[in-house]
Structure prediction request, 762 residues.
Amino acid sequence: MSTTDDLPAPGAPEPGPAPEPRQEAPPAGHDEPPAPDGTTPADPGEEAGPGPDGDGRHEEEPGEAADSPPGDDTPAQPRARDAEDKYKAEALSVAAFNETFNNAMAFGGNAYTLNVGTAKGAELQLIRLDATEAARQHQLHHPAPQQDRMAETLHDHHLVVLVGQRGSGREGTGTFLLADRCGSDHVAVLHSAEADVLQALVAQARRFMKPGEGVLVGLGARSPGQSTLKALSLLAREIGAYVVLVVKETGTDDDLASPYSVRHQRAELRPVLEAHLRSALDAHRARCADRDRCDRAGLRRFADGVLDDARVSGKLDAARTVDWVTSFARNIAACLHGPEDALDVLLDTPHEDLRSLARRFLKLSEAQDADEPSASEAETHHQAVRISYVLGHDLPLSDVLRMGTRLSAEMLRAEYRESAPARPVFELDLDRLVAPGMGIAAEPGAHLADNPRRARLTDPELMPAVVEVIWHGFGWLRDPLVAWLRAMADDRLERVGARAAVIVGHLLRHDFDGAYRDVVKDWARSPSVRDRRYAATALSVAMAAGDPRLTAQVARQVRDWAGSPRPQLQDSAARAYGTQVGTQDVPGTLRALRDLAGRPALDPYASVAYSTATLFLAKDGAEPVAEALGQWIRSDDGHLPRHAVRTLLVLGPLAAGPELLFRSTLAHQAMGSPAREETLLLLWQRALIDPAHSGQAWHQLRDWLVAADEDPELSLFLEKFALRAWQPRVLSRRAVFHLSIWARQQPDARLVAQLLRALRGR
Prediction:
């Protein structure tokens, strides 16, 4: 229930004393609010005194009184409220109550609502929070950054202004501050849809502010004036009340200009979730009929298991508001006695449709916040940085800013404006453009320790979602995007170019022909090895989508490259076979690589060796690759043995496993198979004598011998293996030369000394 009274305008004089005011008993359980000076409010049907203009006229009386002839000095008679006026007043009161009631539910209050309507000014609704709910919020509240300063400001000035983003928990912090200062049973929320709510509060301060009580006021994005804040602070101090104002941060210098303003940032979400989850579980236990299933130890184990789940961390990173976290805690508690897979379903369900989130982030969503600019209003520089942040996931922020600067330049070339948008040097604020509460950037928490700091997304799948939205949602951005990707491929930092290849790979998923024609084709035919590597990476990313049609299209394209007479396209095909394109069919890929390795055009490149090594590390790929290397090293073709030796040098440093860190995977394979030992022997003999690779081969063999001192089994194997490999006279002389140098450099190398003594004793 609520009581609704029509009161005089702020500052209006009292009604004349002539007619006796008609008294109406208020409903039981409600007190009639006193007038500003403590008198009983006048009935609307009685004669009104001077209005706000001070000349005794009503708002609808621009000149003479409505019912008096010109020149008649008779005072205007009081106008009786007819049925139509009463109906309109009641309708307005019902609408105001409904809006206030909804606001009360948001704050958990329902005790008392007072609607004050004035002829001129804002309509205010006062909601007293339920004491039990306010006490519960006070108990579960987790402090926000700078909360001690907020409490100190409220204590000193009886007023504090919390400036922060929506969803940061400003209302919860304000409720905590007021309950901490005034008690949980003396907290109220003042609401108004009008813009001049603070002026109305100042004008009627003694009506709404009582000694020892606290009032929370939400202003949206309306920044309060300094004079209004000072007047409100003085009035609150005089009355003995406390006021907390909640204002949306606008990113301007005026946000924190007043001494009453404190920036409100979101509290760490994990403690918030833990507190509300354990509270919800305790509440469940209190009403659960099966107390055996709800013992305290079991509830603690359930909560601990949920909080340790990696999926919960992902949910918290994607949380846009603190309210969502508290609701999420209640949903988790509801899974306690639910179906067996209820919790997994809850944790595996996406927080939000990624495409919709991407559209809203780039300001393409139809359901935009009133305070947020549209895509056409957002500055080009800001949009470029936002796009670069998402597409630069896990890259250092310095790289993200480099990417954003280049994209901004390309976007400006495509725009037709009378003047380019301004780009102040100190305007670029990533914490505002990509705020954690937007659901895009992960919480900085643990990532602040990164050195250098990196771009972190709540969900890595946001990157392909944003790529699709940009490609299909911004028609004019396609050409600048292609130019930007080409420019990034030429960046001096290879990780920036590699990210361009990944982005192109995502574009291939949505428009294979267009992206291949505009970017990949030129990369594959480029004289630059790096560009050809980017082309292979792009095709691999496209194939990772798991689309059978796209997979077949990528495979056909790689076969076309392999069959081309251009050496660059052949090399691009060889590099593509070392990605997911080739690992899906290891035997078939080995046949294709053998064909490419037999061509003289690929002799200058190591692409075949690296791709073969990738296949060796693939699932079930070690044995087929070892078999192929045995065939290549024994081939009469002059090209195949060279690629086999290069593969040896690529695979040589790789350890056999976490428990065999000092043992090479090739040596481990040879120790269990005489056939593999013979192949390895031929590979090493060819490598140690080949002028193109002997230097690298001798250094790698030294690493094997030194590491064997930590692995007795490997040491016994290599002692016999090395002496067999050095049986040719030319290799024996070279071995003595290198062993002598290694023995002087590393006198503690036991196997090196043993081999040197054995060779000298021959």
Observations:
- The beta strands are 3-6, 109-117, 124-129, 159-164, 187-191, 214-220, 242-248, 261-264, 655-657, 660-664.
- The radius of gyration is 38 Å.
- The first helix runs from residue 83 to 107.
